[in-house]
Amino acid sequence: MQQVLLFALIGLGAGAAYAAIGLGVTVTYQGTGTVHFGLGAAGMWTVYVFDELRRTGDLLLPIPLVRVPLGSPTGTAVALVLAVLSAAAVGWLSQLLVFRPLAAAPVLAKVVASIGIMLTLQALVVLRVGSASRAVAPVLPAGGLHIGDGAVPQDRLWIAALLTVVTVALWAYLRYTRFGLATRAAAENERAASLAGFAPQALAASTAVIAGVVVGIFCILAAPTLGLTTTGFVLMIAPGLACALAGRFDNLFVVLATGLLLGVVQSELTLLRGQEWWPTWASTGLNDAVPFLAIVGGLVLVGRSLPTRGADAAEALPEVVIPQPRWLPITAVIGGAVVLLFVLRGGFRFGLITSFIVALLALSLVVLTGLAGQVSLAQAAFAGSAGFVVAKLAAAHAPLPIALPFAAAVAALLGVLVGLPAVRIRGAQLAVVTLALGIALERFVFRNPSFTDPAGNPIPDPVLFGISFGVSDGLQTARIQFGLLVLVILTVVALGVANLTRSGTGRRLLAIRSDERAAAAVGINVSASKLLAFGIASFIAGIGGALIGYSRGQLTADSFTVFVGLSLLAFAYLGGITSVSGAVVAGLSAPLGLVFVTFSRLFEDLGTWYAVLAGVSLVLGAIFNPVGVAGAATSMLRRFRAAGGHHRPVAPGPPEPPPVAVVGARAHTGKVRLRTTGLSVQYGGLRALDGVDLSVRAGQIIGLIGPNGAGKTTFIDAVTGFTPSTGEVFLEGLSLDGAPPHQRARRGLRRTWQAVQLFADLDAHDNVAVAAQPFDLRTLVLDLVRPQRAPVLAAVGGALARMDLTPLARVRPQTLTLGQRKLLGVARALAMPGSVLLLDEPAAGLSGADRIALAARLRQFAADGLAVLLVEHDVDLVLSVCDHVYVLEFGHLLAHGTPAQIRTDRRVIDAYLGQASRGVEERA
């Protein structure tokens, strides 16, 4: 028992470092809305500044080759003060130069920028002082505290106590000071804080400085117990993020407790590892798997309940340009690659082959992040899993056609398992999970002698049809045969990804990237589609990892470190993470690629400088060029073509049917398509809907009106499955109880949205096409080989024509007026198969003439046999076009009847129609 207590107290040192980084992440998030992945690196930088001052007296500055000599080694107090000031400066500069310009940027750009800060700081340290590990002299009293026969260094207890005091101080600052309360207010609503007289960016800068100082101080205090390397504190961001997630980026005391507990658990695992009964396979890396399990468990439990920061501007991911098959340029690029393989020799040819393989890995990010919007930092881990599987299979003499796809399939399976949390989370939270997974796999699997040989895992040369495709033969270090094999695989995968991007499957992934709720409303299974993206991307990464193994001849864990994965994301983003051409640029410019090899022959010591340039370029790219090199080039080419009068042709649709001059009610003889009984929705203590009974028949237009907050949109959300409800919803006589939104859509429920919610990454035509095209496994296979667009053209063209949007088919929704976006939402719903159409304020933003045209279209929809439910504030439109009208007030059904009955109902006049009339007069 004494040993258990001793190891628990020893673990407080690492636990305090975890908690300090978690506190820094939480405070930064409170002030900036950014999950800062570079805080561990900032702490590492501070420790090196402190240690260099005490060793040499030189002050390191975050500028290459710049240090300030102070003459002689400084004392501990002076070094501590200067190091803390350096930490504050790094935090302030990060906010001023990086996160402030990205305040309204998408999560992906913020994640990428913070990773850029991480890579830059690490590279600067390596450039100035090298990468050898260091022992840091203690700062706190290090005498032993005796417990039984053992002793615990006092510094563990001191650091835990000091961190507790700091946590209380931070909590008091954020809760009880004017600036702290303003910071919390700005985290919820920047505009409100601005109106209250505070500058949100100044508040953000103050929290960035506070976070940097806290992390820097406690990394300095913990360094004597943990040692100092260029990777140790950097990778502590994973357990630090686990702590922040446990506290939901808000509760500082939970962050503190979680960090100390993680340190204690890891220390106890170290104790257990020394027991005779402890399994050998669990003796290496299990400590590093604990944060991953903690993160995944926490996110699964609190996933969507994590708070989001209010922002003034809407976020937009880098634009995806749908590729068109242009075989002449494609053939020229492939031919040029073949020529280079034959022309180049030695290291240059190997650099070209490495570029091919890295381009494959980058293509996996194009699918996962560029198309599906899922941020992954674990692609190197997926590649590594396939690489080590190939090593095992090749050692068993498995032929290339079996070993390569099987290893890639293993990576795909792992990717799907990792993607399971993505069902509930996305953005920075998903990046946290994948980062922790990468660390866990590297430490627990790749560096575990029970699974891999630490001396290397040899891989025999691949053989196909009796021909050796080995990378070397003793005379050549990079054989043409191997290069051609990699080029063929890259070409096939690149064409498949291009086909996927312009196919129905690609449209579905882009729809999810733009708006998951709207995607589910058109029948897309969002969870299954995310897992599909993870599976495809991991399969591609697995191919790349297997080829890395074949290219090296053997594998070690150093081939697939976390930093390899981060560098891969960096160069994929710089090249253009949304396009195949961007992946090619990433491959050419990545470390050990052709560009790197070329410049390394011209400049000495390029490796470290290349890492610095990559980190800085990543930050600059996130701020100024989020579409990457390829995206910028494509935009220039598109503008050039537009200036030359070259436009993409629009698929014609059938002519719009003439308006139907139907006035008044139609016979109510159609079959009941939609019926609700006792439909109720509860939000905490608020009953938004209370036992609403409503039915819609084929050929009818049913109106649903009421004042703001009456529950009209809530009713549509409940019927379509987006809001938990009680009561019953019947479609075509069958209950929809328990059916998720995408299944309800597939059964025939079509809806529009009050806030429009179109897919910003798709033009008007593809917004409609994504709703018109069904999906199955056969469709996926065809999409990878030859996308089939023809079957949906008629439905899409017809829907656009009926809403008079054919001339705008190739226009993105962002450039349309509100009225046009509303009509596009109706067109998208029309393209879906189904019998019920739920319209939520479709006339908002329309002119008077357009409203008259919409009324005629609604009558035509009913004449075609649709059951239409119309929610609209334009009372004149509702009463003129509807057959029956229901009136809601505070969730209760106030009245229902024909338009004539509703127009004269005194309760409706008092509750709503009187207000509506006054509103019309005020607008006039």
Automatic annotation (TrEMBL):
<feature type="transmembrane region" description="Helical">
    <location>
        <begin position="350"/>
        <end position="368"/>
    </location>
</feature>
<feature type="transmembrane region" description="Helical">
    <location>
        <begin position="157"/>
        <end position="174"/>
    </location>
</feature>
<dbReference type="Pfam" id="PF02653">
    <property type="entry name" value="BPD_transp_2"/>
</dbReference>
<dbReference type="InterPro" id="IPR032823">
    <property type="entry name" value="BCA_ABC_TP_C"/>
</dbReference>
<feature type="transmembrane region" description="Helical">
    <location>
        <begin position="111"/>
        <end position="137"/>
    </location>
</feature>
<dbReference type="Pfam" id="PF12399">
    <property type="entry name" value="BCA_ABC_TP_C"/>
</dbReference>
<keyword id="KW-1133">Transmembrane helix</keyword>
<dbReference type="GO" id="GO:0015658">
    <property type="term" value="F:branched-chain amino acid transmembrane transporter activity"/>
</dbReference>
<keyword id="KW-0813">Transport</keyword>
<keyword id="KW-0547">Nucleotide-binding</keyword>
<dbReference type="InterPro" id="IPR001851">
    <property type="entry name" value="ABC_transp_permease"/>
</dbReference>
<feature type="transmembrane region" description="Helical">
    <location>
        <begin position="480"/>
        <end position="500"/>
    </location>
</feature>
<feature type="transmembrane region" description="Helical">
    <location>
        <begin position="77"/>
        <end position="99"/>
    </location>
</feature>
<feature type="transmembrane region" description="Helical">
    <location>
        <begin position="557"/>
        <end position="576"/>
    </location>
</feature>
<feature type="transmembrane region" description="Helical">
    <location>
        <begin position="327"/>
        <end position="344"/>
    </location>
</feature>
<feature type="domain" description="ABC transporter">
    <location>
        <begin position="674"/>
        <end position="915"/>
    </location>
</feature>
<feature type="transmembrane region" description="Helical">
    <location>
        <begin position="583"/>
        <end position="603"/>
    </location>
</feature>
<keyword id="KW-1003">Cell membrane</keyword>
<dbReference type="InterPro" id="IPR043428">
    <property type="entry name" value="LivM-like"/>
</dbReference>
<dbReference type="InterPro" id="IPR027417">
    <property type="entry name" value="P-loop_NTPase"/>
</dbReference>
<dbReference type="GO" id="GO:0005524">
    <property type="term" value="F:ATP binding"/>
</dbReference>
<feature type="transmembrane region" description="Helical">
    <location>
        <begin position="252"/>
        <end position="269"/>
    </location>
</feature>
<feature type="transmembrane region" description="Helical">
    <location>
        <begin position="531"/>
        <end position="551"/>
    </location>
</feature>
<keyword id="KW-0067">ATP-binding</keyword>
<protein>
    <submittedName>
        <fullName>ABC transporter</fullName>
    </submittedName>
</protein>
<dbReference type="InterPro" id="IPR003439">
    <property type="entry name" value="ABC_transporter-like_ATP-bd"/>
</dbReference>
<feature type="transmembrane region" description="Helical">
    <location>
        <begin position="402"/>
        <end position="423"/>
    </location>
</feature>
<keyword id="KW-0812">Transmembrane</keyword>
<feature type="transmembrane region" description="Helical">
    <location>
        <begin position="430"/>
        <end position="446"/>
    </location>
</feature>
<dbReference type="GO" id="GO:0016887">
    <property type="term" value="F:ATP hydrolysis activity"/>
</dbReference>
<dbReference type="InterPro" id="IPR051120">
    <property type="entry name" value="ABC_AA/LPS_Transport"/>
</dbReference>
<keyword id="KW-0472">Membrane</keyword>
<feature type="transmembrane region" description="Helical">
    <location>
        <begin position="609"/>
        <end position="633"/>
    </location>
</feature>
<feature type="transmembrane region" description="Helical">
    <location>
        <begin position="229"/>
        <end position="247"/>
    </location>
</feature>
<dbReference type="InterPro" id="IPR003593">
    <property type="entry name" value="AAA+_ATPase"/>
</dbReference>
<feature type="transmembrane region" description="Helical">
    <location>
        <begin position="195"/>
        <end position="223"/>
    </location>
</feature>
<dbReference type="Pfam" id="PF00005">
    <property type="entry name" value="ABC_tran"/>
</dbReference>
<dbReference type="GO" id="GO:0005886">
    <property type="term" value="C:plasma membrane"/>
</dbReference>
